[in-house]
Structure prediction request, 974 residues.
Amino acid sequence: MSNRVKKIYFDPYLFFSIFLLATLGLFFLYSASNADLSIVLKQAAYVFIGFVLMISVSQADPDLFRRTSFLFILFSIFLLGVTFVFGPEINGAQRWVRIGSFSFQSSELLKLALPIFLANYLFDKKLPIQPKEILITVLIISLAFVLVARQPDLGTGLIVALSGLFVLFLSGLSWSFIGGAFVVLVISSPLIWNMLLQPFQQQRIATLFDPGSDPFGAGWNIIQSKIAIGSGGIFGKGFGEGSQTQLNFLPETKTDFIFSVIGEEFGFLGVILLLSIYFFILMRCLYLALSARDRFCRLVIGGLTLTFAANLIINLSMVVGLLPVVGMPLPFISKGGSSLISLFLAFGIIISMGTHKKFLPQ
Amino acid sequence: MIFEERQVEKNNFSSRAIFLFVIVGISFLAVIIQVFALQVSSYSSYELAALNNKNYAIPIQPLRGEIFDRNGYAIVRNEPTFDLITQPNLITQPELFLELIKPVIYLSELEEEEYLKKFKEKAFVNKELVLKKNLTAEEIARFNVRSFNFENVFIDKRHRRVSDYPKIFSHVLGYTSRLNNQHDLSMDIPRSHWADAELTYANGLIQGKTGLEETYNQHLLGTHGTRVYEINSRGRLVKTLEYQPPERGLDLHTHLDIKAQISAANALGDRKGAVVAIDLNTGGINVLYSAPNYSINKLSNGVSVEEFDSLVQDPDKPFFNRALQGRYPPASTIKPAIGMFGLTNNLVSWMDEIDDPGFFRLPETGRIYRGWKKGGHNNVNLNKALMVSSNTYFFKLAYQSDMTDLASYFSLFGFGNKVCRDCFDEDKVFLPSPEWKNKTFNTPWFTGDTVNIGVGQGYLVATPMQLANYISIVANKGGALSPSIANVDHEAADLYQNNRISLSSGDWNNMHDALTAVIESDSGTARSIRYLKDFKVAGKSGTAELVSLDSKEAYLEVRDTELLRDHSIIIAFGPMPNPKYAVSVVIENGESGGAVAGPVAIEVLKSLLNEQ
Prediction:
């Protein structure tokens, strides 16, 4: 017993790669914010708190997360509700909870709570998963999606939904069901386009296919981002030397489009280095998932990791012009405390699930 | 059992996790390929795009050329002023701003109102708004001390387009206005950048709107300079990378004569009408005057909406250029042309005499066409008919003429054509003919219509410009130059073929003698102006009837209404026998041609000949 308490649950691979990423992120942020040190210091504080949280959380036994998963998701939904009632409206959306001077994007927690909750619900179900369980799962996912998308925050809503769907898929959803759902989705896509998407969202999708159609409106962000990345060339323009970034042609340099800053100032080589770190983190997480001690841990690691990957890929695809513009930060690098804290929490949980081994009862 | 199931589940999880991670890997690959395409394959085009982003070229407005009269005096010039300039896009509360600036700069209530009004309707191409023009030295000093309080306000040298004769030249010079059509902007700088142009004029980017300012806009405009800035995306200028100064527009030298224009204006006084004078050697237009008129200084430098509306709605129509667009019956001034038509077509000779009982009876209908003098002029030949302006003679001559032939003969004098090479918006009017009447009124041409045209009434109308052109052709004995205002090399005139009138030199001499007798003989109709000058003048006066009346008594009733009174017209040239200038004068509702329009023509001729 005493032996277990003393053991520190720690994954050096994830720890050092995330440390590298977050540290590089501070440098990038310095350039992206036009050398605004106060922004960088604030971000650094979040990174520090994040590491503390990550290490703390990873000490907890996976069973603790499993047992409290219901409370966790209730708390997350409660926060969303608080946001909905009391949250300040910023740019026409209510996404933040404010406690004193500290504000938090409430949907971030749901990205963690939902996969854990679903993993808890599904880990002991027999294969293949039964229609009733699928129905319940899909209903919960839909509820979560609607809650977030109504803020309105379609991007995060999609990520939350994906986080649940990953767990559902990993837990053994039958392929025929997936195929059927896919067909339904394709058939109903015109309906989704017309009924669910706001005109500005339709515009963003249309812009993806022809950014030149509205170069100073919806296409501006994509065009400027591509110019920033493209003009970086192989070696980049150098730290703090990107004209697109420094002269503010690039929008949202500190948040969604920080990858374009990296592309402009550090070129193709910088991009490859950055993507290698991400890829290494993903591979390490896959390894942890495959070697986790039980099905619950596997599902949680898989769900959280794939959510992280989806987040990353959506951001990258967006800034290089492969996907429509959706608000989505670059993990560990974009400015933003909520996103950082929730990422560190996610990796704290992943490390906990991946490092706590339970020996089979003899 | 439990272990087996766990193994199956584990395998199931593994294969699905790996499946998803493969998708993640493929997505990574897609991103890398796209980044490669952007950064390596298309590097050069994106590098260029980034350069174009940060380099921002703005135009520098050039000074327009000035306009000079034939003696080298400026008619329109650029007047430098020191103006207090604001940038409305940087001022959030204009009312508050005015309160703050008022202790520094004196502002009248009107100026405040104007500013607030324009603040709201600031034109696209004019990012600046002048708060106060023509600052005094004191105001400049006061502002400079406090300028730190007003970040977005500055004093700068701006120009105004100014004429020292703003009213009398209004129609011929025209005015400039703010450029309102982006398509007129030079394309070497993106259109949107023109909003940031460095301005030279207080009124912003300007273009010629009417008159010479419009006709010679390209000539006067100059070439804009360029300043290339490095900018950030908010358009904030970081530093100048390149500077190319603007090139001032070319000056425009004209045939206009300020002195003669002034004398035309003075002689016309506050009557409505027009004066056109042409240099017979060059075809240059020395006088082009229309009254009433308006101040081009006001129109070029910002006129209030109310003031502009009141000009537009003025019943006297000050914007209407009577010299180029006024359609007046030429009345008796057409008689020389009718006479020449008769000579050319052998309908009459200088010898032929007819009896003028004071009227002409149309054989077909018996309708009576009266002359101006009861009892007539007894025996008249062409010379006397012109001198005493016998209507009967020309009724009869017209009666003998074919209208289609007559109309084409008129066209040789420029009637029904634009005659001026560089006039703004000249009316070409029309030529009456059977075909024209059928098309316009859907009624046939009657012989009586031709008879009326014999005395310049009925369907025949002409502009003062056309009348001046006509009389200059007569003065030059058939060989005349197309009139033009500007003294520049004109390309071959395409609007009006200047045909020679085929008349023997004997006929021309007789014609000049007859027209000289109109003024210089004891029985000429315009003899009242004979002693107003020391040189001889030839001409023909006319009284254009606005209503057709059978008796003098009837006219005396009509005359109570000023606007129905006859127009007074004269066309003249001199000095005889070697004329240098031709002139036409129309005075609306002036009545009796020779006595009213005549003195105006004489004043203009005297001024042009420096005989004042």
Q: What stands out?
A: Residues 493-497 of chain B have pLDDT under 50 and may be disordered.
